[in-house]
Design brief:
With about 350 residues, this protein is of the alpha/beta class. Helices cover about 35% and strands about 20% of the residues. It has a domain of about 170 residues: Rossmann fold.
Amino acid sequence: MMLADKVSTSSTELRPVKLWMPERVVFTPAALDEPWGQKIKQRIEALNLLIEELPRNRLTGLRGETERETYDISKRTLAVVTAPPSQFKLSPIPPSADWQFHLAEGCPAHCQYCYLAGSLSGPPVIRAYANLPQILDNLAKYEQPGKATSYEVSCYTDPLGIEHLTGSLAECIRYFGTRSDGYLRWVSKFDAVEPLLDLPHNGHTRCRVSVNAAPISGRFEGGTASVASRLMGLRKLALAKYPVGLVVAPIMPMEDWEMHYSNLFNQISNTLDFECDLTFELISHRFTPGSKEVLQTWYPHSKLDMDEEKRSVKRNKFGGTKYVYDNDIMKTLRRFFEGEIGRRFPNAKILYWT
């Protein structure tokens, strides 16, 4: 396990990731017509990034000769567009939240198990929405007076990973700070939290970081901050009186997994060494036939284990297929994680295991 030991050492180091700076930034005409689009444009100009104004509300120039080239081009591109009308009809997102909405689609990280693979159509370009005020105004119709309603904003992007370019996450936090019954949830693998620390959140935003054991975070999560840096960012948010959380995902029973995940919980408890409003979300690794196909074109040399013969098949009500760990493995993993969390963080809540 020499490789695992090497990865484990690096994962405990504070290694903030360099802020993602796209090589190409494009704006559609509709985005430029939006006041929030103009604010995004000003932020990008302040970073000395060149802006290309498209002649039509259509993205071009993203396709390469191969799927891998298309991936590379897209991951270096930020497109500022307007959210289509379909985005204003919210979908429930259990068990994470009551509803999901989106301030962007696409992510600057390079996680080899990326759950967006197969979920979003077309090249994986990062699209930021210029009509954010309308998106936020639309949320109120989903609230019921006197009933807490939660909204997840991280389903299709890592909002902190592009915050320096858009400012949209801060705007969402400000909005929910004014709501009596609405609550925001977001999760990230990045650590640049300083612009969020002094916002008037009023306890209505739960900030989470996604973490994993060293052999997984070190091998499969390219372009992200180290786990230690993510946890330090979470510590700063907790000290700023935000509710916080850990999303341990995707959980994998690799060799010596108990030791590696125990080390992860040591890191967490050493960093969050004070009482705070803390939750855990536990997500085991799974994949679909479609996501496997896409991931293998994006990361053709990945060592990620997606052998269907080692998995159980899980079907949803729409006929879709997922490959998950079998029941015995799932029970063993769940017992370990719930035991570790219960012992180390007796006041924390485990929101779900899946």
